[in-house]
Amino acid sequence: MLNQRCQLISRRGYLAGSGAAVALPFLESLAMPNAALAGKAISDGSRSSEPTTASPRLVCMGVSLSMYPGEWNPKQTGRDYAAPKLIEPLEDLRDDFTLISNADHPGVTGGHKGTPAFLSGVYKPERVGQSIVIRNQVTFDQLAARALGNETRFQSLQLGASSVGVADSLSWDEKGIPMPTTTDPLEIYRRLFVDDADPAKTARDIMMGRSVLQLVNADAKVLARELSKTDQARLDQYLTSVQDIEAGIRRQLQWLKTPKPGVPPITDRATNYHENLDLILELTALALQTDSSRVVSVALPGKGMPIEIGDARVNDYHGQSHHGKDPEVIQKLVEIERLHTQSLAKFLHRLKSTPTNEGNLLDCTQVLFGSGLGNASSHSNRDLPVLVAGGGFRHGSHVKLREGTPLCNVFVTMMQKLGMEMDSFAGSNGTVNEFMGA
């Protein structure tokens, strides 16, 4: 039985079968056997270990066009603030996040130039001939990836809700070069779960309803017999999540050839913006749950896939973000941005409902949501929208910092909570430890 269990949990906690690899979430029933087997050779020559749920995780979500300040910033500070319209979708999670206002990157100006500076705190444009080339410094998430990602399959993942250009890039390496961003859920799915070299076949299999779970189903059933009732429920919830992802991808692939009534078929994109974002965030949750990666960035650009609001469709909401204080345009902008926070709320609920050995996945995952642009309409880079959720911080308040406080102070607090020995980053001049209980 021990050898059989070794086979089932080999490859750092993966179920494997015919071109598929399904990483396992933390299962208490396997913790002791895995510890006893650590370092021993198994069938594929790798060591066996369950995901270490005590290890901290980080997710950074950046919105290229900011969030409308008039419906983002509460008028009150402290715990008893009235939630503005953009915060309302998060209301039942109030104790799980902190809103921070008056934070910005003091050295960054130029409106949209703040977007690629969101996680770095700097913006260094260089002129090459007639073109401007952005040179950045290493971003907060990539510093965290160095510290947290050496034991995971992917040191970090860079994902996007829609097509991401250089000006929308969140993650930059130590050479000041933007990290490639993946926006296709099917590609992310393959990276997480499929080892085959035939992407077209994978797409066909999903369209035909052939799940990778079918390939590992027999081993999963054997493994389930070895688990406690609690772990059986965890495994069932996890495998159901994978099935839901496959169903979502199947809907995307069908949409390639299925136009809505009166609308021409979309041939170069799979679905609408927020359906895609929700799939991206579900895959992010699975990557964190299985310890495939502990650091993920998710870009929310302002254009690309269509954004659907009722019967209306917007392919680029840059115009709405530059509303010129027109009430009707602002109303449309707020409707679009509420979809962003609705997706964020679903993601936070997903993490909070995923148990770990020490609580839930949100407890050990810091989620940063915000932008390097403060007010898109006026091209202001001051008073950036910033929300920090989870990660073991003391939450529930709207914190209004001294005007002009560097956002990098927040990053230093977050890095210290991640276990990184950092007392400064970019333009920081302190921390926000006193407000978040770090």
CA distance, first residue to last residue? 45 Å
Structural class: alpha/beta
Main β-sheet description? 7 strands, mixed
Helicity, as a percent range: 25-40%
The global form is: globular
Low-confidence parts, pLDDT < 50 over ≥5 residues?
1-12, 32-53, 255-269
Round the Cα radius of gyration to an integer and report it: 22 Å
Portion in strands = 15-25%
Total strand segments: 15
Supply the number of helical segments: 13
Strands ordered across the widest β-sheet: 7-8-3-13-14-4-15
Mean pLDDT: 81
Instruction: Please provide the ordered H/E string of secondary-structure elements.
Output: HHEEHEEEEHEHHHHHEEEHHEEEEEHH
Q: Would you give an account of this structure?
A:
This protein has a 7-stranded mixed beta sheet with strand order 7-8-3-13-14-4-15, sandwiched between helices. It has a two-stranded antiparallel ribbon with strand order 1-2. The chain has a two-stranded antiparallel ribbon with strand order 5-6. The protein is about 35% helix and about 20% strand. With about 450 residues, the protein is of the alpha/beta class.
Helix and strand arrangement:
Layout: H1 2-8, H2 10-13, E1 14-17, E2 20-23, H3 28-37, E3 57-63, E4 97-104, E5 124-128, E6 131-135, H4 140-148, E7 157-160, H5 185-193, H6 199-207, H7 212-225, H8 229-255, H9 273-289, E8 295-300, E9 303-309, E10 312-316, H10 318-321, H11 327-352, E11 355-356, E12 359-360, E13 365-370, E14 386-390, E15 398-406, H12 407-417, H13 433-436
Parallel strand pairs: 3-8, 3-13, 4-15, 7-8
Antiparallel strand pairs: 1-2, 4-14, 5-6, 9-10, 11-12, 13-14
Helix pairs in contact: 5-9, 8-9, 9-11
